[in-house]
Amino acid sequence: RFLRGLLVLLLPSSPLRTHHCMLSPESVPPQKKPRSNLMAPPRIGTHNGTFHCDEALACALLRLLPEYQDAEIVRTRDPEKLASCDIVVDVGGEYDPQRHRYDHHQRSFTETMSSLSPGKPWQTKLSSAGLIYLHFGHKLLAQLLGTNEEDSMVGTLYDKAGFRRAMDLVQEEFLQRLDFYQHSWLPARALVEEALAQRFQVDPSGKIVELAKGGCPWKEHLYHLESVLSPPGTIAFVIYTDQAGQWRVQCVPKELHSFQSRLPLPEPWRGLRDEALDQVSGIPGGIFVHASGFIGGHRTREGALSMARATLAQHSVAATNLVQ
């Protein structure tokens, strides 16, 4: 409720989707980064493509501060464009508060509220929104409530002020969710069923499903179809195109709401991007592999297929060695 209320203050009509992050009303103010053109509005950089609550909330929190209220949001993954931004969140593979770089996807990132703010008990790894709140949150709340940062009633006063807007948000989100179920979720069932039937044409193993018409809400439908049809073998990967026309290879979770994959992408690939990923995977054209190994990206269909097939092959070798 607290995070939703903050975002509603700036974006009262925006739909939210939950994303795990650990936040605290404590601030660790970073050093300011000088800009070459003091007359130009600041630029907040984040990634393009599918957006999530994490970076949307991070950008919204920043825009509540006077110094960023007129900021331009630059959505890109281009390193040169990101380098020109005053602050970058949820992209770039770098956490450096002195340079205002707040990404958490890189392999080396392990920070928690406890590690960055000694004395705090929370051990959950921070998201980008969590990092922004850690470094700017105390100042932000004081600004919103017109009080000083030491005011002990900041949280209580905010909860009271945001209740009615929170009710409006709940109603709006319900209607949006109903629309999603009608126009996206339900039609996706036929697409997943067709893809499941044609999976052996994608790969002889039958373990890779291709959504030929692009990404759609597939997980719940796949589990339902597996329980009804009992197809031979275990589906390990789903490949599809994203909004930019690039390809994703996503691992099927062990269970519907699980964060563990049936077969994650290889550990040496995780947290790597671009050329570094190509060198380790041996598959040119790679874009990224998430730090947890549940999803990766490639520029081509064949490349995404190769990532899935290579993972299957490595798993098969490991299983054989284990038996021997």
UniProtKB/TrEMBL annotation:
<dbReference type="InterPro" id="IPR003226">
    <property type="entry name" value="MYG1_exonuclease"/>
</dbReference>
<protein>
    <submittedName>
        <fullName>MYG1 exonuclease</fullName>
    </submittedName>
</protein>
<dbReference type="GO" id="GO:0005737">
    <property type="term" value="C:cytoplasm"/>
</dbReference>
<comment type="similarity">
    <text>Belongs to the MYG1 family.</text>
</comment>
<keyword id="KW-0732">Signal</keyword>
<dbReference type="Pfam" id="PF03690">
    <property type="entry name" value="MYG1_exonuc"/>
</dbReference>
<feature type="signal peptide">
    <location>
        <begin position="1"/>
        <end position="18"/>
    </location>
</feature>
<dbReference type="GO" id="GO:0005634">
    <property type="term" value="C:nucleus"/>
</dbReference>
